UniProtKB/TrEMBL annotation, chain A:
SUPFAM superfamilies hit by this protein: MOP-like, P-loop containing nucleoside triphosphate hydrolases
Gene Ontology molecular function, alphabetical: ABC-type transporter activity; ATP binding; ATP hydrolysis activity
Any single biological process term in GO: carbohydrate transport
NCBIfam families: PRK11650.1
Protein name (database record): ABC transporter ATP-binding protein
PANTHER family assigned: ABC TRANSPORTER ATP-BINDING PROTEIN, MALTODEXTRIN IMPORT ATP-BINDING PROTEIN MSMX
Keyword Transcription regulation: no
Keywords noted in UniProt: ATP-binding, Nucleotide-binding, Transport
CDD domains xref list: ABC_MalK_N
Family in the record: Belongs to the ABC transporter superfamily.
Length: 370, 297
C-alpha cells in the first residue's frame, strides 16, 4: 500500500500528444477513478502507471520511489484487465498463483495465499476449473483474485465491469467497494461510466482529449464542476444548459433567459462575488434536473431558494422514483425531475421551481465555471 | 404479400436451383472420387495383374503385400520421413512465427518470402533440390570451386541418407505455410493476456512456454493433420528428387503403389497398398473432421 504521484506526465505517440501534463496525487488507501469518454487517454494513463507503456516526460512515483524506468513486474502493482486476461490453458488456481510461482514463492505459501484469496472472493469451488468453464462474473472474481494474491502497493482496474450485464455490474461494483473498505488498498480505476466513478471513488479525475479537466472528490465534482464538459459528463440525466444573460436589477443579480412571449428571470439571492464581473454579459446557465422540480416553496427546505416559472410540458419519462419531464425553453430541451404524484400530462402547462442555490454559471466562450 | 403463382414458382426455383447447379460436380465427385475408391477396394480383392480382372480371390493381395520387403522399406521410409517432416516443420514454423510476431519492421515483405515455396509444385521443389544437392552440380561442387576441396555433401547419392534429403526439400517447401498458421494463431491471442503475464513477472521464455504455446494447441493439431496427410500422399517430390533411389532407398508407399500397379503388373497388390494408404489418411482426417464439426455446433 502506498501513495501515488504523477508529476507533469506527458505521453506522445510520434507527433500525437495523447496526454498533456497530467498532475495527480493520491494518498495511501485512496480510490482514484479516471473517467472520461473513449479516447480521452485514461487507459494510456493507467498503462503508464502499470509500466506497460513509458511516459514521454514527467515523473511517476509510488511512495517516494520514482518508477518511470522500473519494469512492470518490479513496481509491485497488480492489474485487473477489461477482458480479465485469464490464462485459458491454466486452472483458476494456476491463474492465481502464476505470478507467485514466477517470483519463486514456496508451494506452501502459495497454497495458503490461494486459500485466503479464494475465501475472500468466494471462489473456492472454482479453483480447479478452467476459465472457459466460468461465467463472466466468476471470471471477474478470478481476475481480482489474481491481483489480490500478490498483495501489491497499488491495484489498477481497467474498465473491469464493462463486459458484465447491468445487474451483475451493480453487484460487482458494490463488491469492489466493500473490498476496498475492508483492505484499505490504494486503487486506480478506469471507467467511462460516470455512475461507477461517482459511487466508487474517493477522488475522481475527469479527462478529455488527454487533458485533466478536474480532479476532486465526487461531491465537489458534482456540485461545482470546473467546466461545461465535466458538468455535462457527470450526472444522469445530465445537467441542463441554457443561454442566458446575467442582469443587475437594483443590486440583485438575476439570470435572464430570453424566451419567446414570456422571458424568464431567475434572481440569485446569494450570488458569489465572481458573478459580478459578468453582470450584463452573456453566460451559460446550468442546472441539474433535480434542482428543477414541480412547484415548491422555500419553506420546503431551508437552504434552497426556489424561483418559479411556467412552461409547457413536451414529454414525460417516468422512471418510477421520479418522472423526468422534458420542457422546451428557448429552443433547448430541458429535463426537470418531478415527483410522480405531481407529474403533468404532455401538452399541459405547469409551474416549475428552480433551486437557485444549486446552479452553475459558465463563460460561454471558455466554457469554464464562473 | 399474397403469394401469386409466379411467386410460388420463383420460390420453388430458388430452392431447386442451388441443388441443380451443384449436382453435376456432386455427380462427378461421387463417380471419380468415391466410385473409384470403391473400385480400387474391389480390385484389391481380385487377381488383377496387368489389367483389371474381376475374379475375387479374397485377401491374398494383402498377405502378399505385407510379405513384400519393398513395402516394408516404403513404410519404414514413411515413418522416418513423416516424423521428421512433421516435427521439423512444426518447430521451425513456430520459431519463425514467434520471431516474425515481434512487431519487426518489414514483416509484410518477410512473410510472403517464407510462404512462397508453398506456391511451388512439389515437382519444381524436387527438381530444384535435386540439382542443388547433386554433388557434381550443386552445393558440393560450388564449395569445391570456391576452394573448400574437402567439403562433401552427397546424401542424395547415399542409400542411408537419401531419405533425409527428401525431408530437407519437403521442410523447405512447407515450413513457411506452417509458420503462417502459427502466426495466425499468435495474432489470435488476447494482447491483454500478454500484458497480464508481463505484470505477473513472466520472462519472455516462460511467457511463451507457459502461456502462449499451450494456447496454440489447436494450431498444432491443424498443422499435424495438414502435414501428416501431405506426408502419406508424398509422391511427386520423391519422383522428382530421387525417383525412389538410389536403388529403392527412398521408396514411399505412394511410389510403391504406382510402380506395382502400373509398371510391375501387380495391380491387385498395388490396389491393396492404396487401400492401406487410404486407411492411414482416414485415421488422421476423420477424427479431426469429427472434432471440428462437433465444436462448431
Amino acid at each position: 500500500m502506498a501513495s501515488l504521484t504523477l508529476d507533469k506526465v506527458r505521453k506522445a505517440f510520434g507527433p500525437v500528444e495523447v496526454l498533456k501534463e497530467i498532475n495527480l496525487s493520491i494518498d495511501d488507501g485512496e480510490f482514484l477513478v479516471l473517467v472520461g469518454p473513449s479516447g480521452c487517454g485514461k487507459s494510456t494513463l493507467l498503462n503508464l502507471i502499470a509500466g506497460l507503456e513509458t511516459s514521454t516526460d514527467g515523473e511517476i512515483r509510488i511512495g517516494d520511489r520514482v518508477i518511470n524506468d522500473v519494469h512492470p513486474k518490479d513496481r509491485n502493482i497488480a492489474m485487473v484487465f477489461q477482458s480479465y486476461a485469464l490464462y485459458p490453458n491454466m486452472t483458476v488456481r494456476k491463474n492465481i498463483t502464476f505470478g507467485l510461482e514466477i517470483r519463486g514463492v514456496s508451494n506452501a505459501e502459495r497454497d495458503k495465499a490461494v486459500a485466503d484469496v479464494a475465501k475472500l472472493l468466494q471462489i473456492e469451488p472454482l479453483l480447479d476449473r478452467k476459465p472457459a468453464q466460468l461465467s463472466g462474473g466468476q471470471r471477474q472474481r478470478v481476475a481480482m483474485g489474481r491481483a489480490l494474491v500478490r498483495d501489491p502497493d497499488i491495484f489498477l482496474f481497467d474498465e473491469p465491469l464493462s463486459n458484465l450485464d447491468a445487474k451483475l455490474r451493480v453487484d460487482m461494483r458494490t463488491e469492489i467497494k466493500k473490498l476496498h473498505q475492508r483492505l484499505g488498498s490504494t486503487i486506480v480505476y478506469v471507467t467511462h461510466d460516470q455512475i461507477e466513478a461517482m459511487t466508487l471513488a474517493s477522488r475522481i479525475a475527469v479527462m478529455k482529449g488527454g487533458i485533466l479537466q478536474q480532479f476532486d472528490t465526487p461531491q465537489n465534482i458534482y456540485e461545482r464542476p470546473n467546466n461545461m464538459f465535466v458538468a455535462g459528463f457527470i450526472g444522469s440525466p445530465s445537467m441542463n444548459f441554457m443561454d442566458a444573460t446575467l442582469r443587475d436589477e437594483n443590486g440583485t443579480l438575476s439570470v435572464h433567459i430570453d424566451r419567446e412571449g414570456s422571458p424568464i428571470s431567475l434572481p440569485l439571492f446569494e450570488a458569489p462575488e465572481s458573478y459580478r464581473a459578468y453582470a450584463g454579459k452573456k453566460v451559460v446557465f446550468g442546472i441539474r434536473p433535480e434542482a428543477l422540480t414541480h412547484k415548491r416553496s422555500s419553506s420546503d427546505s431551508a437552504d434552497s431558494q426556489y424561483v418559479n416559472f411556467d412552461s409547457k410540458v413536451e414529454v414525460i419519462e417516468p422512471t418510477g422514483a421520479d418522472t423526468m419531464t422534458v420542457i422546451e425553453i428557448a429552443g433547448k430541451e430541458i429535463v426537470a425531475r418531478v415527483r410522480p404524484d405531481r407529474a403533468p400530462t404532455p401538452g399541459e402547462s405547469m409551474t416549475f421551481s428552480a433551486d437557485m442555490s444549486q446552479i452553475s454559471l459558465f463563460d460561454p466562450d471558455s466554457e469554464l465555471r464562473i | 404479400m399474397q403469394p401469386s403463382l409466379p411467386g410460388k414458382a420463383q420460390a420453388t426455383l430458388r430452392e431447386v436451383l442451388p441443388r441443380l447447379v451443384l449436382s453435376p460436380s456432386l455427380f462427378l465427385i461421387l463417380l471419380f472420387v468415391y466410385g473409384f475408391i470403391i473400385y480400387t477396394g474391389y480390385l484389391s480383392l481380385t487377381d488383377s495383374r496387368m489389367l483389371p480382372s474381376y475374379d475375387l480371390e479374397g485377401f491374398g493381395n494383402y498377405a502378399n503385400l505385407w510379405g513384400q520387403r519393398n513395402w516394408l522399406v516404403a513404410l519404414q521410409n514413411l515413418a522416418i520421413f513423416g516424423i521428421l517432416y512433421i516435427a521439423i516443420c512444426s518447430v521451425l514454423g513456430l520459431v519463425l512465427a514467434i520471431l516474425l510476431d515481434q512487431k519487426i519492421r518489414g514483416e509484410g515483405i518477410l512473410r510472403p518470402i517464407y510462404l512462397y515455396p508453398m506456391a511451388l509444385s512439389f515437382i519444381v521443389t524436387g527438381t530444384a533440390w535435386k540439382w542443388f544437392l547433386d554433388p557434381g552440380l550443386g552445393l558440393e561442387n560450388t564449395m569445391h570451386l570456391w576452394g573448400w576441396e574437402s567439403f562433401t555433401f552427397n546424401w542424395i547419392k547415399d542409400r542411408d541418407m537419401a531419405i533425409y534429403t527428401v525431408v530437407i526439400a519437403a521442410v523447405w517447401q512447407s515450413s513457411g505455410f506452417v509458420m503462417a498458421m502459427f502466426l495466425a494463431g499468435l495474432r489470435g491471442i488476447d494482447s491483454e493476456i500478454m500484458k497480464a503475464a508481463q505484470m505477473d513477472g513472466a520472462s519472455r521464455w516462460s511467457l511463451y512456454t507457459r502461456i502462449v504455446i499451450p494456447q496454440l494447441r489447436p494450431v498444432f493439431l491443424s498443422a499435424f493433420v495438414v502435414l501428416a496427410h501431405l506426408a502419406i500422399k508424398a509422391y511427386d517430390l520423391v519422383i522428382a528428387l530421387t525417383n525412389g533411389g538410389p536403388g529403392r532407398a527412398t521408396e514411399l508407399p505412394a511410389t510403391f503403389m504406382y510402380s506395382y500397379t502400373f509398371t510391375r503388373n501387380q495391380m491387385g497388390v498395388g490396389a491393396s497398398s492404396a487401400v492401406i494408404m487410404l486407411a492411414m489418411i482416414a485415421s488422421i482426417i476423420v477424427p479431426y473432421l469429427y472434432s471440428e464439426l462437433r465444436e462448431r455446433r
